[in-house]
Design goal:
This protein has 189 residues and is mainly α. It contains 9 helices and 2 strands, in the order H-H-H-E-E-H-H-H-H-H-H.
């Protein structure tokens, strides 16, 4: 498999996933800020810090959120990422998360305003390319998010068997991500 293609896809997914991850208060992801089920999962299983430094702290949940998006995008494209590729991508994503926190700490109000304008124009372009908000939402949500939506809508009764089928087909899910998804679905990990 072409590593350049995978890295390019990863950067594309990052462009969409990382702003969402930092839309909430510093130190939490957007999903944690708005989802009490995730808060419960964090209370049960913890959210260890995976990187720390001067003014920087990256938690496992932030890294997991980015990796779930990347894995979902790969599955949607019919690609299989090897464990070595996943390790390389995870290391690069951790670097990116650190860089983003460092840049956010140094950003002035002017920088933040300019960044918000650029992000708005990029989102408008993505929306135009997708054709509708619904289509864009489905593209951004990813496989595991759609699986949780299917459970909430009553289309599947339990998530675990479907998740097991995805894993059998080559979809890679970490223990932490599996436990989080099952927890959000109200199932025992």
């Amino acid at each position: 498999m072409n590593t350049r293609l995978i890295i390019g896809a990863v950067i594309g997914v990052m462009t969409m996933a990382l702003p969402r991850a930092y839309a909430a208060a510093p130190g939490t992801t957007a999903g944690q800020a708005s989802n009490s089920a995730e808060t419960t999962m964090t209370a049960l299983f913890g959210d260890p810090v995976v990187a720390t430094g001067a003014g920087v702290q990256i938690k496992q949940s932030a890294l997991d959120e980015v990796m779930v998006g990347i894995k979902s995008a790969a599955v949607q494209r019919g690609q299989t990422l090897t464990p070595d590729q996943l390790n390389l991508i995870e290391a690069k994503m951790l670097e990116q998360l650190i860089d983003i926190q460092l840049l956010l700490a140094k950003a002035t109000d002017e920088d933040k305003t300019a960044g918000a304008k650029k992000a708005d124009s990029q989102m408008a372009l993505l929306l135009q390319r997708a054709g509708s908000e619904k289509t864009l939402g489905l593209q951004l949500k990813g496989t595991l998010g759609l699986l949780l939506d299917a459970k909430r809508a009553g289309l599947v009764t339990t998530v675990a068997p479907v998740l097991d089928q995805l894993v059998a087909l080559g979809f890679r899910v970490s223990r932490h991500t599996r436990a989080a998804v099952l927890g959000l679905a109200g199932e025992t990990p």
